[in-house]
Amino acid sequence: MADTVTRSGTTSPGLLASLDPLLREWLPRQRWFAGKGRPVTGFSQVAATELLPAGARIGLYHLLLRAHQPQSPGDCYQLLIGVREALPPRLAPALIGHVTSGPLAGRTVYDALYDTRPAELLLEALRTGARIGALRCERDPEQRIRSGLVPRLMTAEQSNSSLVYGDTFILKLLRRVVPGVNPDLELPLALAREHCPRVPAPTAWMHADVDGDAYVVGVLQPFVQGAADGWELALRELAKGEDFAAEARALGRATAEVHRTLARALPTATLGRAQIQPLVDGMVVRLDAAAQAVPALRPYAPALRTAFTALADLAAEGHTWTAQRVHGDLHLGQCLRAPTGEWSLIDFEGEPARPLAERRMPQPAVRDVAGMLRSFDYAARSADPPAPGWAHTCRAAYCSGYAEVSGADPRTDPVLLRALETDKAVYEVVYEARHRPDWLPVPLSAIHRLAAADLP
Ligand SMILES: Nc1ncnc2c1ncn2[C@@H]1O[C@H](COP(=O)(O)OP(=O)(O)O)[C@@H](O)[C@H]1O
Ligand SMILES: O=P(O)(O)O[C@H]1O[C@H](CO)[C@@H](O[C@H]2O[C@H](CO)[C@@H](O)[C@H](O)[C@H]2O)[C@H](O)[C@H]1O
């Protein structure tokens, strides 16, 4: 397919063809690549913007590329490709490869997020509300962005890539992108409008406009300085043999505050039999697909299915539930505790593998509660020796904290809670099998327990 690089209309045919063999090898090795286990057979260009000319000391392209894979329409990825004669040693981890043909022949291409100049250029574009080629930046006029902040790429395990600027801002660049409203921007903006202090308010954001579709490609937020995430803190307390009840309670309160604000800011719904059945069907479909993909899950599948059908049975008896927008993938790593002791929630993208429309649907708020309860279990199972009693105390404290703010204790609806915990554990089995096979025993141990649990 012909490729076009847009920067005030300039074109550079052949760019993609020359990058193709290098990207086929490099992309599947990236942590954020979602199509693990299947080869990349080629690319098509969704958008390309030249940010710095390839002839300069550092060239820079912003690309949205669809990666073709067998048995899938192919996901679209955001890449920032730097071009240099040679890489200085500090950029060695960023290497993509040496181009042998086409307009960049003889040059070295690399992941430009590791490099200072490209990272500075992104912040400057956000600061000035720039429009460059396909890229369109917007910002909150109330927040000030200083120029000259020094960038560094975060090295944490992530589903996307983040740059921190002078410990003042953090820019998340989404890697797998889809057109449409992205909850990772939508929800923090809605919460900011309601002055919710539990979520850093977006400072600026970047879209790529392609054939009438807008893709959210980056979100800049204030950086919570000196913060520790809930996962680190939980592991630290576990290692010391300390309980985490006070923090779990505070986290329960923070979750309920965010839920209360989301319910005020965005549409809610009532789920009766007609709405619960498709939800349950979705859980069963995901379970079947997971059992197909991960053989270790198969023996548990019939027992796990009863967790879902019990929910459908309750709905058939006339029970209803309230649904609202939720975080969608809440776990300890998504909770940051500032040195003041205040908790913030981050990363409202939802489960990255789910379709966008599904992630944006109102759901029972207990879905997030289930995510956190799973996370306490993860932390307790990672301890040596495992500490199930620790997780149990956290569960109780978190649910109590949640009830203090929301007025509703999630434990009073055990059928819903069990269905959602089971659904999450099934998701985790697939996630770990794909991304971190060594961790697979952690969700599998929960599967074992959930499958054996008596129905209330
Ligand atoms: N506003 C923030 N302040 C400080 N650190 C942050 C902030 N947002 C994210 N982080 C850090 O960046 C990491 C990745 O952010 P996250 O939004 O979870 O990205 P991803 O979707 O790629 O997993 C978090 O685990 C956290 O350590
Ligand atoms: O943070 P992400 O949006 O990238 O979420 C994905 O990765 C998480 C792991 O980094 C994964 O979370 C699972 O492992 C956590 C411990 O590392 C644990 O606290 C969570 O409870 C567990 O689900 C998350 O599921 C995945 O979507």
TrEMBL record:
Pathway: Glycan biosynthesis; glycogen biosynthesis. Keywords: ATP-binding, Carbohydrate metabolism, Glycogen biosynthesis, Glycogen metabolism, Kinase, Nucleotide-binding, Transferase. It comes from the Bacteria. Its EC number is 2.7.1.175. Signal peptide: none annotated. It is an enzyme of class 2 (transferase). It catalyses: D-maltose + ATP = alpha-maltose 1-phosphate + ADP + H(+). Residues 26-115 form the Maltokinase N-terminal cap domain. GO terms for molecular function: ATP binding; kinase activity. GO terms for biological process: glycogen biosynthetic process. Pfam families: Mak_N_cap. InterPro entries: Kinase-like_dom_sf (IPR011009), Mak_N_cap (IPR040999). Monomer. Belongs to the aminoglycoside phosphotransferase family. This is Maltokinase.
